[in-house]
Amino acid sequence: MRYWGLILLLFCTACRRDGSDAQALRCNAEIGIANFDQVKKSLTYENVRSIFKQEGELFSDNGVTKIYKWYYVCSGLKRYVQCQFQNGQVTLVAMTLTRDICAYNLSVNYPKVQHGMTYAQVKHVFGADGDNFRNDYQYRPGGHDTRYYRWYNCDAPAKYAEVWFSADTVVLTRKLL
User: Fold this and answer.
1) Residue 137, CA atoms < 13 Å, CB-side half-sphere
2) What is the bridge-based pairing of β-strands 77-86 and 57-61?
3) pLDDT tens per residue across span 21-55
4) Could you tell me which residue, 30 or 131, shows the higher pLDDT?
5) How far is it, in rounded angstroms, from Cα 66 to Cα 60?
6) pLDDT band at 142 (very low <50, low <70, confident <90, very high)
7) Any idea what DSSP says for residue 129?
8) Whole-prediction pTM value?
9) Cα separation of 118 and 129, whole Å?
């Protein structure tokens, strides 16, 4: 009887959804998203370094554009937030671990998204907020910022609809459904 009790205890422990998922979300929210959301247009490297409280790793430098990555580990996976600087200021910020957001019926609703729609209209079509995983900040006079959103399929999170907004209107859509 003790033998079966031990097996049952091990089985239940292995199947229980405990801290591993909570840790991934906590790491996601506290390190990735919280810092990603603080990085704004025109910040300098020093400003971004102070947000992350560490030096970034220089990933690329072509003399005009520098790209730095700030790494962190969530549930054993190496993740990062990437910032691109031109003229010493942030022009792009992207991340590899995104918010836990999903929507149903993406295949049905994706064709309803049209160029020129606003974010609010697209949100209404999908029935949920999108995951703002990247922002490009235009440094040229008269340019517009571009925000990139994904709506993940709740039934298959590796599949998503991606919508790009410039001046709060859809400028590009693509899908992996």
Assistant:
1) 18
2) unpaired
3) 434 434 544 556 677 778 888 899 999 999 988 89
4) 131
5) 6
6) low
7) -
8) 0.61
9) 13
Q: Which two tokens stand for residue 160?
A: 């998503």
- Rounded Cα gap, residues 66 and 88, in angstroms: 8
Please state, in angstroms and rounded to a whole number, the distance separating the CA atoms of residues 133 and 117: 19
> For tokens 């998203």, what's the residue?
33
Q: Name the burial class of residue 75, with classes exposed (0-12), middle (13-18) and buried (19+) by CB atoms within 10 angstroms of its CB.
A: middle
Using CA atoms, how far apart are residues 87 and 61, in angstroms rounded to an integer? 12
Cα–Cα distance for residue pair 14/7, rounded to 1 Å: 11
Query: Position of tokens 């910020």?
Result: 93
Q: Which residue has the tokens 């003399």?
A: 63
Task: Write out pLDDT tens, residues 50-103.
Answer: 998 889 999 999 999 999 988 876 656 677 888 999 999 998 888 765 555 678
- For CA atoms 41, 44, 45, 46, the dihedral sign is negative
- Collapsing DSSP states into helix, strand and coil, what is residue 113? coil
